[in-house]
Write a structure and sequence with these properties.
Length: about 950
């Protein structure tokens, strides 16, 4: 039987799933909700418009589980083999697969430390949650759930889970900010917009921590329970481990704590006594998805020759027992194996349910983690002959450090100093740290004392003591965790000293040196130790080229590194030679045998360039339009004193003739046909049943025109749609105070009949005068200036570029300007051309990562909003040229066309601004192909001549002549 058969299973499954995803059959076989998620996570245009995306290892892990659970609908681990690779069953331990813990849908994800297992966890939780919420109740498949249990191995990982789902702790406070949970912070990656409200609501109302009490806190329809492995201990074991504390006493006294979505009904208050412990509560749920973080802790123990399950697995077996196919489990680990045997017979036995394998080799070659360096410096060559265990007396009590340990610590400190002095020159916020792994807690005080003797201050050393299982007392943990998790931000501490505590969940980025004083040869412990320093420190895109070349230098060419950017140095320990050799053979590590001068070559050829002394002579700004220029009218400016009164008849005459009781003024014919300009008086005016209706109809008449649209008959079109209430008030005041040059009350006696008479003489006059007033009002237009923010490129005072791919130029604000190392010849030639052209006053090479403000929004061909960063901004005496340089193959790309249209429109807006907001120049957009540039340059063309020939117009952008 092969011990790594599950890795072969994962490999074959991955190939099947890749094919199914690429040919579309996987998408066809899943639910509409799953389709939405997969398209949003893994397909363009979404992936192209985000700065963050799932990497290949994360993507494949997600797809493999969805394929098994939703498409193949497996129910046991054995069924995974039967459906994916039945021939492998002959090499499996079938008695192992027959165990209860494998008779459920169970999937293990093997991903290297530092490669984002938590993001996979979030994605799979969302997949289950949204499918469960949108599944038709009468057609429920039982494959989806809204109940989740996430289990951590210890305090560090548990705290990370609380950060991920409850939000980070507010500064100097024990309260958590829900808007800093992972799913909210990265909503553009995880959640399609249509699902965001329900996801955020679910998380806010249904997360339960172990402190709140699983089964005690009231939640809505579902829960996300966060706990560590202590949940699965018996009550007696818990009592032996944890002393009584205020929270635990309160939990014993009060059976329930309030949630956000439910009240303390009697049924809920009785839950503690009706359902018993947390395990009983979880066991009685109808369905559940369990996520085990760092699942290698679930392995079996062997006592007195018998195999027994650890309490963690026993608890899971109990929870799953009555759920049938409505329970499934996902295990995450970088090291999903048990180590058996010893010496030369020692081997790894991988868990049988591994369904994806993204190992350290793939992660390192992809640049997702630091590159490993084994430090074989000159002072370590004789280490094998030294004692590397702590000094002990005859009673085995530790009395000091051995010479070998002191030598390793000095080597680590020396490397740390080299990195500190080199990194600070490039970025003062990059503070490298060193981690020391000791053999036991009796050694850590001596290590701390030695480090201080070597010159470190007390604040520079953080010592964390734990027991043999890597656990720390909770009261001690509360004191150190704030300093520990923020070490990336601060200069101190510089060195962390620990035994086992920091194996998992210690998710900081700046560990650059590891000194393994611990002599254990456990493969899991070794890999977990190395894993603490793997997370990337230099994530900014300007470092990617340097890091890629360095990986090639170390891992492929087997040469010394050119820089220490994102390199993890391990001070070589003689006890780990086999482990180191395995790393070397798998191309996972290089060797650093050099003794570099302090600070030299630490950052390779990446340099920090600042502004020139005379940068203001060449500085340009990017105009950011906060508010565009607008035209505003003022309907409140209508002055009724400027309106003429009605003089054809006096009020007394009209009253005598028209305002008689008992007369009817109902007409079925068009009574008013008078037209003033484009305004018509319609017959329906006589249908007014009240004065208010009358005012409304007058308003409609004076604010409507009849226009012919196409070949159809004339249609009513509005002439004014704002401030209509103010116009009605003006009409009312005019009628009451000015119409008859005296006060007029339409409700007095039968005065209203004067207005509604079927000849409409008074109404015609009202319409005529109000129409004139509106016309003149619309002529009174105020133009408000646009609000524009000038963002100078000098507001970014430093750039980080590669010295070997940079130029010293005169007409720029920076000391040097960089260009791409890959196919950057065109840009390099164009930069030199601009600097030499006498018609060019100044220019800037726009760096989209560091000059992010210099952007233009456009609509992609598929209808989605995107952001575009031009390549160059060039200033001459009369023009600002926005220049995009493109290879010949991209010049007719459809999205390039869309960019052209958007940039043309943007330039037109800029050209309408006041002169001071556009540097007193006209702005033009230029699309320059490589062939055109070199051809025109050979013929002696100047920049202005080149731009005149490559100026983008609307006809060019659309491809239409007319």
């Amino acid at each position: 039987m092969r011990n790594d058969i599950s890795l072969e299973l994962a490999s074959r499954l991955t190939e099947q799933v890749k094919t199914a995803f690429e040919n579309g059959s996987l998408l066809d076989a899943v639910t509409p909700v799953t389709q939405d998620l997969l398209k949003f996570w893994f397909m363009g245009p979404y992936t192209e418009e985000r700065s963050k995306n799932f990497h290949e290892g994360q993507k494949q892990s997600i797809l493999n589980i969805i394929y098994l659970h939703e498409v193949l609908q497996v129910t046991t681990v054995e069924e995974i083999y039967r459906q994916v690779a039945p021939d492998l069953l002959a090499e499996c331990n079938l008695s192992d697969l027959a165990k209860e813990k494998y008779r459920i849908p169970k999937y293990a994800v093997k991903m290297a430390t530092g490669t984002g297992k938590t993001w996979v966890m979030h994605a799979l939780l969302l997949w289950q949650l949204l499918n469960a919420r949108h599944e038709e109740q009468e057609e429920r498949s039982g494959r989806y759930t809204q109940n989740f249990l996430i289990v951590a191995p210890g305090l560090i990982v548990y705290d990370r889970l609380k950060d991920a789902y409850c939000g980070r702790l507010k500064e100097n406070c024990t309260e958590r900010d829900p808007f800093t949970n992972d799913l909210y912070l990265h909503k553009d990656l995880f959640i399609p917009p249509a699902y965001r409200d329900e996801v955020f609501s679910f998380i806010q109302n249904n997360v339960v921590t172990k402190e709140e009490g699983i089964g005690r806190k009231i939640t809505g329809n579902g829960l996300i329970a966060l706990t560590n492995w202590h949940l699965f201990l018996s009550d007696e074991e818990k009592e032996n481990m944890v002393p009584d504390s205020a929270p635990s006493i309160i939990r014993d006294l009060l059976p329930i704590t309030p949630g956000l979505s439910g009240g303390n009904v009697l049924e809920a208050l009785d839950r503690k006594y009706l359902r018993g412990s947390e395990l009983d509560y979880l066991s009685e749920l109808s369905d559940l998805m369990v996520i085990n973080d760092e699942a290698h802790h679930i392995h079996e123990n062997k006592k007195q020759g018998e195999i027994e399950e650890v309490e963690w697995q026993k608890g899971l077996n109990k929870i799953a027992h009555n759920k049938g196919g409505h329970f499934f489990q996902i295990d995450f680990s970088a090291t999903p194996y048990d180590t058996v045997g010893s010496g030369k017979k020692k081997m790894k036995c991988y868990f049988p349910h591994i369904i994806s394998d993204f190992d350290l080799s793939q992660a390192m070659k992809s640049g997702l983690v630091k590159t490993l360096l084994l430090d074989r410096r000159q002072e370590l060559t004789d280490l094998a002959n030294l004692d590397y265990n702590a000094l002990r007396d005859e009673r085995k009590k530790v009395i000091g450090l051995s010479d070998g340990q002191r030598l390793m610590l000095r080597a680590g400190l020396r490397k740390l100093k080299i990195l500190e002095e080199g990194f600070i020159k490039l970025d003062s916020k990059k503070r490298p740290k060193m981690m020391v792994i000791c053999e036991d807690t009796n050694v850590t005080p001596f290590v701390e004392s030695f480090l201080k003797e070597e010159g470190l201050a007390e604040k520079d050393v953080l010592r964390i003591d734990s027991n043999a299982k890597g656990e720390v007392k909770e009261k001690d943990w509360m004191q150190v965790k704030e300093r520990l998790f923020n070490i990336d931000k601060y200069e101190s501490p510089k060195v962390i000293v620990s035994v086992l505590m920091l194996r998992e969940g210690f998710d900081v980025n700046n560990i650059c040196v590891i000194v393994p004083l611990r002599s254990t040869q456990s493969a899991i412990l070794l890999e977990q130790t190395v894993g603490r320093g793997l997370r990337l420190m230099w994530r900014e895109p300007e470092y990617s080229e340097e890091k890629r070349e360095n990986r090639l230098q170390v891992l492929v060419k087997k040469k010394a590194p050119k820089s220490y950017i994102d390199m993890l140095s391990i001070i070589e320990h003689p006890a780990f030679l086999d482990f180191y050799n395995d790393l070397m053979n798998e191309e996972l590590a290089g060797i650093d045998e050099g003794d570099l001068p302090d600070g030299s070559n630490v950052t390779g050829d990446i340099i920090k360039v600042g502004l020139k002394d005379n940068y203001q002579d060449y500085d340009l700004f990017w105009p950011l339009i906060i508010k565009e220029q607008e035209e505003e009218i003022h309907p409140s400016e209508i002055d009724i004193n400027r309106l003429a009164p009605f003089t054809d008849f006096s009020y007394e005459q009209l009253k005598e003739i028209l305002a008689k009781p008992g007369e009817s003024f109902i007409s079925h014919d068009v009574l008013v046909g008078t037209q003033f300009g484009k305004y018509e008086v319609n017959a329906d005016l006589c249908n007014a049943q009240s004065y208010n209706e009358y005012l409304q109809k007058v308003l409609r008449i004076v604010t409507t025109r009849f226009d012919k649209v196409g070949r159809s008959k004339p249609k009513e079109l509005p002439t004014l749609q704002i401030n209509q209430q103010e116009i009605i008030r003006v009409i009312d005041r005019y009628i009451r105070t000015k119409l008859f040059s005296r006060s007029f009350n339409p409700f007095e006696n039968y005065n209203w009949k004067i207005l509604l008479h079927n000849e409409g003489v008074a109404t015609q006059h009202i319409v005529r005068e109000i129409s004139k007033a509106i016309y003149y009002m619309q002529e009174q237009i105020d133009i408000t200036d646009a609000i524009v923010e000038k963002i100078y490129f000098s507001s970014i005072p430093t750039l980080r570029i590669r010295e070997s791919f940079s130029l010293d130029l005169e007409k720029i604000i920076y000391e040097k300007v960089g260009y791409p190392s890959n196919k950057g010849g065109f840009e390099k030639a164009f930069l030199e051309f601009l600097d030499a052209d006498s018609e060019v006053n100044c220019f800037i090479k726009i760096n989209e990562n560091q000059h992010s403000f210099a952007s233009i929004h456009y609509i992609r061909q598929d209808g989605l909003l995107a952001t575009y960063h031009p390549d160059f901004m060039v200033c001459t005496s009369q023009h600002i040229y926005i220049i995009e340089t493109k290879g010949q193959d991209k010049i007719f790309d459809k999205n390039v066309r869309q960019k052209q249209l958007a940039t043309l429109e943007w330039c037109n807006k800029i050209n309408q601004l006041r002169a001071q907001y556009r540097m007193n120049r006209q702005w033009l957009y230029i699309l320059l192909s490589e062939n055109d540039f070199y051809s025109l340059k050979r013929n002696g063309a100047t920049l202005i001549e080149i731009c005149n020939l490559n100026k983008v117009s609307e006809s060019v952008a659309t491809g239409n002549l007319f």
